[in-house]
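Notebook entry, structure prediction.
Reason for the run: the old model in the group folder had no record of what sequence produced it. Starting over properly, with the input documented here first.
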Amino acid sequence: MLQRESPDPRRLLLHAQPLAGDPLQSTLTDGAPLDMLGIEPHTRRRNRMNGVVQGVTQTGFQVCVSQSFGNCPKYIQARQPVYVSGQQPHKPLLHDSAGLDGAARRLVEAADTVFIATAYAGDSVQAGQAGGVDVSHRGGKPGFVRVDADNTLTMPDFLGNLFFNTLGNMAVNPRAGLLFIDFANGDLLYLAASAEIVWDGPEQEAFDGAQRLLRLRVQTVRRLHAALPLRWGAAEPSPALDATGVWQ
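New structure, fully documented this time:
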């Protein structure tokens, strides 16, 4: 179980390490930029925070906070989590590839939730508060992320908090990371992709609620079996989904 504390407003201490097989295992080092999304699916509360990693040890690490801000509850499906201690494998089965296999496609096509990470590409010191990394939540009706040919995903971008952190980063740096979760069995699907913003056009106009589309060309895939020590019951869809459509 993740344990954390905040000795002051600028520091967050986490007494935990990345899950076995998580790509963060090889990149969690002192001085690395890091973004975190705190989310309570059952209450739809969420907060985004970014900063710099400091003091990595065998038992945890510290984050020196640069930015922290809350987000609205839009598009979050309410789920009640249950911790399943001891049931996750010590070394979850790894599936590494350059493309989506059948299991990965099924997880994406059934998803109502995805997490997307982006980063600013320029000089972070010169950029000031615009620099750093970011991770965000995206939600929709099941199947709102479409799997196209050539390992390309297309998802609608709905009206949100008007911060445009994700889109702003993509405009200067097309690299993106995606995380899909199988809430029933704890499978995790990590995707590295090249992102493109589709500002308008027939596809965007045909999807109810979409202000634009995100097109993501998948480059690498990692799938972990039952890695997450949490399970959730049935989802209570967000009321905000009433104004959104489905792919035809």
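Summary: The two ends are 41 Å apart (CA to CA).
The old model has been moved to the deprecated folder.
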